[in-house]
Amino acid sequence: MDTSEAVENQSKVSTEHSPWQVSQLSKSLKDWIEKLGRVWVEGELQSFQERPSGIFASIRDLDVEAAIEIHSFNQSGAQIEVGLKQGDRVVALLQPQFWAKNGKLTMRILAMHKVGLGELLERLERLKQQIISEGLTAPERKQPLPFLPNRVGLITGANSDAEKDVLQNAKLRWPEVQFEVIHSHVQGDKAVGELLFALETLDAMPEVDVIIMARGGGSFQDLLPFSDERLVRAVAACKTPFVSAIGHENDQPLIDLVADLRASTPTDAAKRVVPDVQEERRNLQVALARLRQRLDSIVTVQEQFLISIRSRPVLASPYGFVDAQAEQLGLLKRRIREIADFRLERAKHEIEQLSLRAHSLSPQLTLSRGYAVVTDEKGKVLTKAKSGQGIVIRTQAQEIQSTVNQVKEL
After folding, report:
1. Regarding the domain with residue range 14-115, which homologous superfamily does it belong to in the CATH classification?
2. Domain covering 120-275 in this structure, CATH number
3. Burial, 172: exposed, middle or buried (Cβ in 10 Å; 0-12, 13-18, 19+)?
4. Beta bridge partners of 71
5. By CB neighbour count within 10 A (0-12 exposed, 13-18 middle, 19+ buried), where does 46 fall?
6. How far is CA 143 from CA 236, 276, 409, in A?
7. What is the pLDDT of residues 194-213, one digit of tens each?
8. Cα torsion through 225, 83, 77, 93, rounded to 10
9. Cα separations (Å) of 46 from 61, 66, 78, 160, 396?
């Protein structure tokens, strides 16, 4: 490093005792800023002015409060679409420019054009496919709506037709329905932030059983906040059942895909969220009539059943069964008695016959006819005797002891 470069570098150092000149600071800032290069920016065109010297405006962030000033002088060669106006959504190629004279930073326009419908549709289609691939639109994620919500949360524009449609139609169907209404911008750069805040507020309220986000339709540009990725993901993550009622048919904001229920209009949302008290009363009357008819039918059938039971002989005459059994028992007793008498009589006759037969065969009867029985002294009947043997002779009336003197063989 030569002496001149060392002196120059030394002069660039800013100290308390060796401060920079303002012009030196401005020049340094200008050098550094203009080295930043170019950048593409998307936003909403604000404070748009076309002067003889050129175009002066600002680009506002689409979501938050942030803006930058932009300009383009005539004959600068900037490629700027003709017909731009305040409020247009644009994409601009910008280059930072620092004005050393007054210390002001602006952005020079190199090219600027309105965001085309085709480009927006392509972005929305990519986001749509992304949330579908993540399963945020799956039917199994859809929460059922309560039959009769304790309190309905409503997010809509202040004093809008959508608000009136929801409130009036809901109260016509169910006069006691309660609402928690939060007003929000429903289009423009403030819409997404306010819609997110309202959604988070209502979702945190335990008394709110269902949330409706309503708008009375609009152009494709007006409905873009309802396809913002942050709002779409917030709706998908909402713990409270959510109803989308943007009031459109041709264009479908992406929150419709992740909502638990898509209503075609705010009026349709009111009809879907609360039941019709008159219809419910009619249904109740029909149900009660059917219940009464069913009960009457059951009672009638049971009455006929009881009548048929009571008409049976066993119940018509409670003692008839006992009497019948008593009569049967009497018949059985008589039958047993007859059988017993018959058997006794027959047995008596048999005994008499046996007695007569025994009497006819009795040895005593034989003795009465003059016969005698001869036995030895031990009582054994003798068929043969020996001479000198002691014998006993038994007649009908006597027992004679004797001795055999002589035996003669026959």
Report:
1. Nucleic acid-binding proteins (2.40.50.140)
2. 3.40.50.261
3. middle
4. 56, 108
5. middle
6. 11, 21, 139
7. 999 999 999 999 999 999 99
8. 0
9. 10, 12, 19, 26, 169
d(CA 98, CA 34): 7
Q: Give me the mean pLDDT over the 95-112 stretch.
A: 82
Residues across the chain: 410
Sheet with 152-156, edge to edge strand ranges = 179-183, 152-156, 210-214, 242-245, 261-262
Tens of pLDDT, residues 283-333: 999 999 999 999 999 999 999 998 888 787 767 777 777 778 888 999 999
HEC profile for the chain?
A: CCHHHHHHHHHHCCCCCCCCCHHHHHHHHHHHHHCCCCEEEEEEEEEEEEECCEEEEEEECCCCCCEEEEEEECCCCCEECCCCCCCCEEEEEEEEEEECCCCEEEEEEEEEEECCHHHHHHHHHHHHHHHHHCCCCCHHHCCCCCCCCCCEEEEECCCCHHHHHHHHHHHHHCCCCCEEEEECCCCCCCHHHHHHHHHHHHHCCCCCCEEEEECCCCCCCCCHHHHCHHHHHHHHCCCCCEEEECCCCCCCCCHHHHCCEECCCHHHHHHHHCCCHHHHHHHHHHHHHHHHHHHHHHHHHHHHHHHHHHCCHHHHCCCHHHHHHHHHHHHHHHHHHHHHHHHHHHHHHHHHHHHHHHHHCCHHHHHHCCCCEEEECCCCECCCCCCCCEEEEECCCCEEEEECCCCCCC
Domain boundaries, the chain: 14-115, 120-275, 316-358, 364-403
